[in-house]
Design goal:
By secondary structure, this protein is of the alpha+beta class. The chain is 54% helix and 19% strand. The chain has 3 domains: 148 residues, no CATH class; 70 residues; 134 residues, Histidine kinase-like ATPase, C-terminal domain (Heat Shock Protein 90), CATH 3.30.565.10. The strands form 3 sheets. The protein has a 5-stranded mixed β-sheet with strand order 6-8-9-11-10. A 4-stranded antiparallel β-sheet has the order 1-4-3-2. A two-stranded antiparallel ribbon has the order 5-7.
């Protein structure tokens, strides 16, 4: 979840109980205020009735058009002792003119005439429907909540994106950053103290990463370079022993095993040196290179090498597939994928090479999918002791060098490696 969405969600959830509490307080305040006003009216009306009763004047009609109604009932002193002197409460009363019941506010009190007779007077007046009031408040609160959220969303959007621009610039820079690629310096144009500290921390982290990355590249390059001479000497001496020394069958077999292991070590060293050169940017020269011609030539070569496995190679390529990159790296890129498609194929399998626009796919038959999360890692291989585990790592390194998108999938019994070339390769 994005930070902006989290802020809006937090504000929404935080505002919801506040609005609900405010609605409840407003409802009870409204009810209390209406009841106070109604009680004053009932008190005045009850006082009018009592004065007329005590003065012997005619009492008002029970319902004089004002919807107020009353009743006067004689009571004894016992009733007076058991009930409060004055009571306000709500009840439902019947309105004859409307022939229906309505909620009403009721005043009940007791008075005494000159002869010592006690009377209970009960005065009622229609009041509001609490349900209607509650529904009305709910509708208005929901409307107010929506308006507030829209307002908050607009204000927060403006404030958030305006003030968070330095962070987004830093994140954009991190998306483009590649170790050892001579990236632009960390953006530092904010006057906000926290962002300036963040940019300084990012710059320090990048400098440390660049330093250790450079150390790693130098170590691999130097180690690979220094190993070339002793490996070549060892290979020459083994060859001299095989050709010039009387050996029995067991000794010869052991020397040949050593020679095969040495040959694998030489390939491993050569590949590591090539990886180091790629990561050091030592292939600046580039030209228009026709991948289709390279693939056709090498597909025929690998077909001859693996002829005994009866692998059918189908190349569905245009007359030319031109890219602007170093010819040596372009050859290494396609040859590694093409060689893998023959080497890791099955008996009587297929190799299919197709191109669509700027997309090149090399597929081969297989029995099960590979681990897509690891196949491009260095020294990863599945069950082939002769493999150095650097072929696809080399492919991945070349693709990163030229911003080529490489992907793997297993569909319909075929391993598919897809290269998506950008419209214009820049280095």
């Amino acid at each position: 979840m994005k930070l902006f969405h989290r802020v809006i969600l937090t504000l929404s959830l935080g505002l919801l109980p506040v609005m609900a509490l405010w609605a409840a307080l407003f409802y009870f305040a409204m009810v209390n205020e209406i009841n106070d006003e109604t009680d004053d009216v009932l008190g005045d009306y009850a006082e009018l009735v009592m004065r007329r009763a005590l003065a012997g004047k005619p009492l008002p009609a029970p319902n004089n058009g004002s919807n107020n109604s009353y009743s006067v009932t004689p009571v004894d002193e016992k009733y007076l002792a058991e009930n409060p002197a004055i009571t306000f409460y709500d009840e439902t009363v019947y309105i004859p003119e409307k022939e229906e019941t309505e909620p009403a506010r009721v005043l009940k009190t007791v008075f005494c005439d000159a002869e010592g007779q006690y009377y209970e007077i009960k005065v009622a007046t229609p009041t509001f429907e609490r349900t209607d009031l509650l529904e009305t408040i709910a509708y208005y609160i929901i409307g107010l909540y929506i308006v507030l959220m829209l307002t908050i969303f607009a204000v927060v959007s403006l404030v958030y994106y305006y003030n968070m621009r330095p962070l987004y610039r830093l994140l954009e820079w991190f998306d483009k950053y590649r170790p050892g690629a001579n990236s632009e310096p960390v953006p530092d144009s904010s006057s906000v103290v926290e962002f300036r500290k963040l940019n300084m921390a990012a710059q320090q982290a990048v400098e440390r990463a660049e330093y250790y990355f450079e150390q790693q590249k130098q170590f691999i390059g130097n180690a690979s370079h220094e190993l070339q001479t002793p490996l070549a000497i060892i290979g020459t001496r083994i060859e001299w022993l095989v050709n010039n020394t009387p050996l029995d069958e067991q000794q010869l077999e052991e020397l040949l095993k050593i020679q095969r292991s040495l040959s694998r070590l030489v390939r491993l060293n050569r590949t590591l040196l090539l990886l180091s050169k790629i990561e050091n940017g030592q292939f600046p020269e580039a030209s228009e290179t026709d991948l289709a011609a390279i693939i056709r030539e090498n597909a025929e070569t690998y077909g001859d090498i693996y002829e005994e496995r009866n692998i059918l190679c189908d190349t569905q390529l245009p007359e030319s597939f031109t890219v602007h990159m170093n010819e040596s790296l372009a050859t290494t890129l396609t040859n590694n994928l093409l060689k893998n498609s023959f080497l890791h194929n099955i008996q009587d399998g297929k190799v299919r090479v197709t191109a669509d626009g700027r997309e090149l796919t090399i597929a081969n038959s297989g029995e099960r999918a590979l681990d897509a999360s690891q196949i491009f890692e260095r020294f990863y291989h599945e069950g082939n002791p002769e493999s150095t585990g650097l072929g696809l790592a080399l492919v991945s390194s070349i693709c990163r060098y030229y911003n080529i998108e490489v992907g793997y999938s297993f569909e319909e019994g075929m391993h598919r490696f897809t290269l998506k070339f950008p419209e214009e390769i820049k280095r």
